[in-house]
Amino acid sequence: MNFSKDQSAGYLANHMARIFAQGLTSRIKPLGLTTGTFPALLELWDTDGLSQKQLTERLDIEQATMANTLARMERDGLIVRKKDANDGRAQRVWLTDRARDLRDPAITAAQEENAMRLAGLDEDEKRQFIALIQKVIKTKMSG
Amino acid sequence: MNFSKDQSAGYLANHMARIFAQGLTSRIKPLGLTTGTFPALLELWDTDGLSQKQLTERLDIEQATMANTLARMERDGLIVRKKDANDGRAQRVWLTDRARDLRDPAITAAQEENAMRLAGLDEDEKRQFIALIQKVIKTKMSG
DNA sequence: AGCACTTGCATAGCTCGCTATACAAGTTTT
DNA sequence: AAAACTTGTATAGCGAGCTATGCAAGTGCT
Fold this sequence. Notes:
The structure is a homodimer.
Chain A: H1 9-28, H2 38-46, H3 52-59, H4 63-75, E1 79-83, E2 91-95, H5 97-117, H6 123-142
Antiparallel strand pairs in A: 1-2
Chain A binds a DNA duplex through residues 18, 21-22, 25, 34-36, 51-53, 61-69, 71-72, 84, 87-91.
């Protein structure tokens, strides 16, 4: 039974993700941000005041993971959590001014990281690459 | 400034890696294995008795991460660490019988997971997918 | 031989992901 | 209205990754 890690999609996916994560980590560290907060920030920059439930749905992240991430974000002054007026269970998440101000530099950092990592691919390859990953992800979401 | 997470290579890479990791986790849990040990096991199944240093180099994993992973592996009876005879600093890592016996079922599990996740791609797409990820990884390794 | 330097590993402490569990606030059933 | 169920968060505890730091074992210079 032969198995080469360098031909294994799962291994390669993990390796590549670590590389992206390390790069983004160092780029956004000067902003006082960490990678785990990024997805939540993207959603909130788009539509502020989402509930924790809505965030987990949009990001395919477990509820417990989101709760912990939001706790760190609140600790670090990026968000405030307020009880929903109509539903005493729900927590609505609101960005602070600081978080709003970080949008542009943070997105720039992410774009730079993406561009650098894909520098070895031509335009066609980049499109294919994105499309293929999306397809693999969709295979899970639908199955 | 527009930025869509679903067009961001870094975000997609992270998401895809999480999906692979969750799938493999559940598949190898019955074997008493976790994903973090998998890369080290692959190397050791191929050539037993590597040093910790050699493992970190072959897997592009930080030394501290490897030390922790090996500590868990030793705790779980997968490996034994023995001082190198010629170099009192180096630890050589040796598989236990149990770890050797797990090779075939573990690799089967990984192959099944890979196959399932790539089920939505045709043969040509699979080849392209692997090749593109390898290329992205290589961009880091060379730069 | 003695000193500084390098190398291999371990440890501390953090983020971020997960599962399992608890619990209070809603909702439905009876 | 009370009981049973569902839903939204929080917490505990673990794995896996990282940086920073410490330290003992080897190497090199003088």
